[in-house]
Amino acid sequence: MTDNEEVTPLLASPSAPNKKPGTAFAWLLSRSPTTIFLTVVIMIATLGSGLTGLPTLAVVEDSICQRLHRADDQAAPDDRLCKSDDVQRELSFIMGFQSMMEAIPSLVLAVPYGLLADRVGRRPVLILSFVGMILGMSWMMLSMWLSYYGLPFWVMWLSAFWQVIGAGDAVMISMVYAMISDAEPAETRTDAFYLIIAGSLVAHLVAVPLSTLLMLKSPWIPLLGGLALVVFTCICLTFIPESFHPTGSTPTAQTADDQGNSASHSPIQKATNFLSRFIAEARDSISILHSPSTSALLLTFIIQGFTNRASGFMVQYLSKRFYWSISRAGLLVSIKNAVDLVLHIFILPACSRLLMSPHFRFNYDPYTKDLVLARVSIFLLAAGSLLIASPSLVMVTIGIIVFTLGAGFESLCRGLISDLVDPEHTARVYSLIGVIQASSTLSAGPAIAWLFGSGMQLGGGWIGLPYLATALLCCLAAIGVYVVKPTVSLRRTRDQT
């Protein structure tokens, strides 16, 4: 079966959600096959990557601790020594710099890969992203193991350069969202985003306690098991049909044109033509920024690197603040995963239906509904960050819950931008989002590490300085969301016509 034959039912299926299914199972079945398939494979990938998070932190912390505090008699250092300021400062620096290095390929290559996806399709680019991810994970694990034998920690940072293949997480996420945008109409697109996020959260909710349990025997069991699951996911992606084909051209015509070009143009001429097309398409992508609403929404993604890093930093923060083990801190942070799951499966879809229902006074259209929810979400992110900076365990726990209730902000903003651009520009605008997020991540890792180190030097409640800074950034992003005005979405207008 060809790609064109396989993609036909996918394009027809989005009409199903308009039937208002009466049960959650019927609602799930009403999603497009592309959305369901992506949800399953991303769940497997998230389970794999989720298994590696805590043991990676534990192995690096242990390796640093042994280098700094191992006694002359070769006895293992006391666990409390591993929570000392010098160990935690170096740990935050290593992991923060790692996140910065991983952002560089996305920053440099996200737009070219987005343009490539608009020309050859989303699936090949998505598979390339997973290949780069697998190679990077393998390099990182090898360097972590060799660090016990004296290998410098900076070698671990080189794992990021494998992500030149596929441009890393930013492009991978962008391709997933682009494929869903291709397969779902505007009225159900945000719900489809919620579904795939919820699937990831279910996997991560399982991954954290499972990883903690496996770490009791050895941290290398979840590390290697997680890598195997990501490899399996990459294999599964080869079976998903392509969701997008450029309009105005057929594969046959393109093949004939390519053959003609190969016969009549020299390599230099072909390179020049490719560069000219790339510049023209880049200019076309920049024209998207002429819309004030689109520009304002794109600017809100600047904070995503900081909120994502602040979320990922919680385990080390709690471990240091309350002198807990990595696994114990990870179990508390798993509350975040549970709340996140409830948010995307129940709270956000329920709020969406409430705001759009003609039986209530709101009766919003999909665009306005997403805008209202985005404004509430950014407020919750700011309030939660402030509470996490508190010295009280109770307040920190409440802060984690409040912070997590604002976690729909990114998908809501993506849905808003999807409504403001035409389908032909979806992949490249998502890649532009990836560039912005990569730029944010590039600075977020070292910034969070520096703020954490400064907070430890100041002492007392200042150890929560990274979350105070995150709260301030969320307040600035709120300005961008609140200046966006409700309007008629471009994509919804095209869907209706």
Question: Can you give a write-up of this model?
Answer:
The chain is an all-alpha fold and 497 residues long. 77% of the residues lie in helices and 0% in strands.
Brief rundown of the structure:
This protein is mainly α and 497 residues long. Helices cover 77% and strands 0% of the residues.
Q: Which geometry do the CA atoms define?
A: globular
SSE pattern: HHHHHHHHHHHHHHHHHHHHH
The class by helix and strand makeup works out as mainly alpha
Strand content: under 5%
What Rg, in angstroms, do the CA atoms define? Answer: 23 Å
Kindly state the mean pLDDT as a whole number?
78
Largest sheet: none
Catalogue the unreliable spans: 1-22, 249-264, 488-497
Quaternary: single chain
State the helix count. Answer: 21
- Kindly, what is the distance between the CA atoms of the first and last residues, rounded to a whole number of angstroms? 31 Å
How many DSSP-defined strands?
0
How much helical structure, as a percent, in the residues? over 70%
Subcellular location: Membrane
GO molecular function, one term: transmembrane transporter activity
Keywords: Membrane, Transmembrane, Transmembrane helix
Main location: membrane
Structural features:
disordered C terminus, Major facilitator superfamily (MFS) profile domain-containing protein, MFS_trans_sf, 77% helix, 21 helices
Write the layout of secondary structure elements.
Layout (H helix, E strand, L loop, with lengths): L2 H10 L11 H6 L3 H37 L15 H36 L1 H26 L6 H4 L10 H16 L2 H30 L4 H18 L13 H14 L2 H20 L5 H9 L3 H9 L1 H8 L4 H31 L9 H23 L4 H13 L3 H12 L5 H33 L6 H19 L6 H7 L1
